[in-house]
Amino acid sequence: MKAMEYKELGKTGLFVSKLSFGCGPLGCHYGTYDETDAIEAVRQAIKQGVNYIDTAPWYGQGRSETILGKALKGIPRGAYYIATKIGRYELDYDNMFDFSVEKTRKSLKKSLELLGLDYVDVIQARDIIHDIEFAPSLDIIITQTLPELSKQVAEGKAKYIGLTGYPMSVLKECIEKSNINIACVLSYARLTLIDDTLLEYIPFFKKHNIGLINAAALSMSLLTNNGPPNWHPASDETKEQCANAAQYCKNQNVELSKLAIWHSMQYTNVDTNLIGIQNTKQLQMNLDVLRNSITEKEKTLLQEIQEKYLSTIKNQHWEDKEIQMYQKAMKNNVR
Prior knowledge:
Strand content: 5-15%
Protein name: D-arabinose 1-dehydrogenase
Number of helices: 11
Low-confidence stretches: none
Radius of gyration: 19 Å
Strand order of the largest sheet: 3-4-5-6-7-8-9-10
Domain NADP-dependent oxidoreductase: 18-306
Pfam families: Aldo_ket_red (PF00248)
CATH topology: TIM Barrel
Number of strands: 10
Shape: globular
Structural class: alpha/beta
InterPro entries: AKR, LGALDH-like, NAD(P)_OxRdtase_dom_sf, NADP_OxRdtase_dom
GO molecular function, one term: L-galactose dehydrogenase activity
CATH architecture: Alpha-Beta Barrel
Mean pLDDT: 90
């Protein structure tokens, strides 16, 4: 059995576990869950050496941070690192995004209250999308949001600044244009069984000594036996082929998510793999894959589903889909 591995997150001095705990499933987007079991999963993860935990106000409009705050009570602050985010908040489109200085300040204050902490280790500007409807140009992020986050760091409410977003090109552009010290980048659903876009950007991030968090190895539940939630923005073709792969795994009594997690963990040029975890059962599966790998039979099965189904997918990503949905909703609201 392997011990937990740790790598420095860019130039931060934070040595983060190879597996990190994603609290997205502790919000409202991935169905109901048992709160007691979720809290126990967080506590067990820390005991097992998982030391990087990621949350956001967007996850259940504060529910994820509230649950996490309960889980962390009594645990020494030096046992874990916490990352949260600003920028995306409400479910309704009118109030979904706000990158203003005032909202940024209020959001971090609220996050610290819910988490029961004096500071977070990483504060991230989230869902940066180079589109006039999401954020009135990238300039707001660069001239208002990031400088405000820098002030929060100076005041001791956060230690490092990060970025997160789906389009890789925008993350790169933001780093190139900003004079704020960006410590790390969270890239999600971009180094998976169906999309490896992140690979072409890794040299850029490494050149700038920026920490790299590889999130959503399961493509937001797309690569699981149960399948994705109904809001998932992937194309019908992508969903169908992933469902075919899932059924093939079910027939062999194997969980597709186990294969997907193992696949993403084989890339050694990222600092940590952030995987959404909702209960102790999921935690143990992740730890088992990390420590014990997968069987030769499962590796063969993985190769088969890649050849039969996943390699045929033409639309590996959904970069423009969410922007189109947002634009459509805002136009309807104007009417």
